[in-house]
Design a protein that fits this description.
By secondary structure, the chain is mainly α. It has one domain. The protein contains 18 helices and two strands. Strands 1-2 form a two-stranded antiparallel ribbon. Helix 4 packs antiparallel against helix 14.
Length: 397
């Protein structure tokens, strides 16, 4: 492979994969985002759990091997929200996944994604990241932490302070301990252990053949609302956080867009849900210790095994895991994203632009698109104002 081709995705100096304690802990850093979305889509659209989980896990493994860093694979959030709220038919979901794969392929092959990456400045990207962080925190605080009453709040409090205590200790994987605590809680309070053997069965993903009508409907209903979020968070913000956390690597927006497209050109034909990369997932894996693709391989292997052997009983497993602990995982993921604003703190203008973009992105419909446009306009106006001021007062340069 040529140096140029390699540089567009992983980098020629890609590190070896590790599977130590920190990678095992980092493996669960994105669970709070992925598990509720996957479960919600499976239940709302009556998807085949074996297909969804297996394909999702295999995409994680393939991405980790390619990038050799904790580059996550996540369900597409806007699509998932529409599917869950409107009970979209499986055929339309598969068509929408194929539609967004083709759309991203066109943006990437024409080089338009590079143009977008050039014109969107760092304060705007930081704002998009902070907007996602605020959204994740809001979901955790409003929906997850109090979902099981006082007992759930107490469990979340224990999980939060336990994670806070363990994060600085390399030998003890914080997220793994949190997941173990959730599994023990679910087994004791909610899971019917006698019914588990009946839920174990080996199955393979089911092949699908999306029809042109479903692709068109999926494009209008699912892909169009998703594209702005994907460009902002899955491509631009993910490239930025990869540069922040792994400055020695050369991860480009176009490289991320290529793998984003490839996943969604494959997923629909094997019953998988549409997927993307994401800055929040990368922050989550990193926050809990992931430094190589090992954490993502571990994570993906667990999903693949769950799909292949426990697909029929997936609903019981999901319902047993306490949402308050998923909320704790989301809290730490959101904190990692919000903390990225610190490098803009010395520049008050850019810091305020980032905050404005974040507030817009997290609080209004199509917030990521509106925030992107408003942020770009603010950056342009402030730069023009500074240029005009400097021309009037050259001694101030």
């Amino acid at each position: 492979m040529s140096t140029q081709a390699t540089a567009s995705t992983p980098s020629e100096s890609a590190p070896s994969l590790r599977f130590d304690r920190r990678e095992w802990s980092g493996a669960f850093g994105d669970l709070g985002t992925d598990l509720p979305l996957l479960a919600g889509m499976i239940l709302a659209a009556q998807l085949d759990a074996t297909s969804v989980l297996t394909v999702f896990g295999l995409m994680q493994i393939a991405t980790a091997v390619l990038y050799r860093m904790p580059m996550p694979v996540q369900p597409l959030k806007a699509m998932a929200a529409i599917v869950i709220s409107q009970k979209v038919a499986p055929e339309v979901l598969y068509g929408g996944g194929l539609a967004i794969g083709v759309s991203m392929l066109v943006l990437t092959a024409t080089g338009f994604i590079d143009f977008i990456n050039r014109v969107v400045s760092k304060p705007v990207v930081r704002g998009i990241q902070s907007g996602l962080g605020l959204q994740l925190a809001a979901i955790a605080l409003k929906e997850y932490l109090s979902s099981e009453g006082a007992r759930g709040v107490a469990l979340a409090g224990v999980g939060f302070f336990l994670t806070l205590f363990l994060l600085g200790r390399r030998r003890i994987p914080a997220a793994l301990i949190l997941v173990a605590l959730g599994a023990a809680y679910g087994a004791f309070w909610k899971l019917d252990l006698a019914a588990l053997p009946a839920s174990v069965a080996f199955r393979l993903p089911q092949l699908q053949a999306p029809k042109l009508a479903d692709v068109w409907t999926g494009f209008l209903l699912l892909a169009l609302p998703q594209i702005p979020l994907s460009i902002c968070n899955s491509i631009l913000a993910t490239r930025q956080i990869a540069e922040d956390l792994f400055p020695q690597r050369r991860i480009t927006a176009r490289g991320i867009a290529w793998t984003y497209s490839a996943m969604n050109l494959i997923n629909p034909f094997f019953g998988g849900v549409p997927t993307c990369h994401g800055s929040g997932g990368l922050a989550g894996h990193y926050a809990f210790g992931g430094r190589t693709g090992g954490s993502v391989i571990i994570y993906g292997a667990l999903f693949a095994c769950l799909g292949l052997f426990f697909g029929p009983g997936f609903q019981a497993w999901v319902n047993a895991f306490p949402l308050p602990l998923l909320g704790v995982l989301l809290i730490f993921e959101s904190l990692s994203l919000l903390a990225l604003l610190r490098d803009l703190a010395p520049d008050q203008t850019n810091f305020r632009i980032a905050l404005l973009v974040g507030l817009i992105a997290s609080s209004i419909p199509y917030g990521y698109l509106v925030g992107l446009l408003v942020g770009m306009l603010c950056v342009f106006l402030t730069s023009q104002g500074w240029t005009a001021l400097s021309s009037q007062h050259p001694e101030g340069r």
